[in-house]
Design a protein that fits this description.
Elements lengths: L1 E7 L1 E3 L2 E6 L1 H7 L7 E7 L2 E12 L5 E4 L2 H7 L6 E8 L13 H9 L1 H9 L2 H12 L4 H15 L4 E3 L2 E3 L6
Antiparallel strand pairs: 1-7, 2-3, 3-6, 4-5, 4-7, 5-6, 8-9
Helix pairs in contact: 3-6, 4-6
Length: about 170
């Protein structure tokens, strides 16, 4: 079943999204309360639907975060009303999409505090970090990001991946 609707692109922090109401989400999968795997097209784009999770808001509604690739393909900007098509993705299998690079995994094994911090991260955050690491091309970028990651995973305060880690606000 394809859910089709129109919605305005809004911001949650720095993340563009459209809101999917509880009654709309129930048409895809009733009584679903956790991240829901779906495929999405905005304004009929991209040609191959994008795989993403609808993220629960807490009141039965969901956020459909719109990746830059999807927004660019759709020619859609913040504040625009867009046509959205969503289907439940029954083929989705969770877990990291990218393997742990040896330059990170080896150092994580040598640093018990960082290893413990990594284990405490939710799977979605681990997946996000591994996806980020997979895009690093130079040895210098890998080294720089490795040191920053180990520092914050071990409990240090710093900015890493556009976030303040271990700040007094609980992050």
């Amino acid at each position: 079943m394809t859910l089709r609707f129109r919605a305005r692109i809004e911001l949650n922090g720095i993340n563009p999204y459209v809101r999917v109401r509880a009654d709309q989400a129930a048409k895809l999968k009733s009584s679903w309360r956790r991240p829901m795997p779906v495929t999405v097209q905005v304004n009929g784009k991209p040609d191959a639907p994008w795989r993403v999770n609808l993220m629960p808001v807490g009141d039965g509604d969901f956020y459909l975060y719109l990746h830059g690739v999807v927004r660019k393909a759709a020619g859609a900007s913040l504040g625009e009303v867009v046509s959205v098509a969503i289907e439940f993705d029954g083929d989705y299998r969770g877990g990291p999409a990218h393997p742990t690079p040896p330059w990170f995994g080896d150092e994580l094994e040598r640093n018990p505090d960082a290893k413990q911090g990594w284990a405490r991260l939710p799977p979605s955050r681990q997946k996000e970090i591994l996806r980020y690491f997979a895009g690093l091309k130079s040895a210098a970028a890998q080294e720089r990001n490795l040191r920053r990651a180990l520092h914050v995973l071990a409990g240090g305060k710093a900015r890493f991946m556009a976030r303040d880690w271990n700040a007094d606000d609980g992050e």
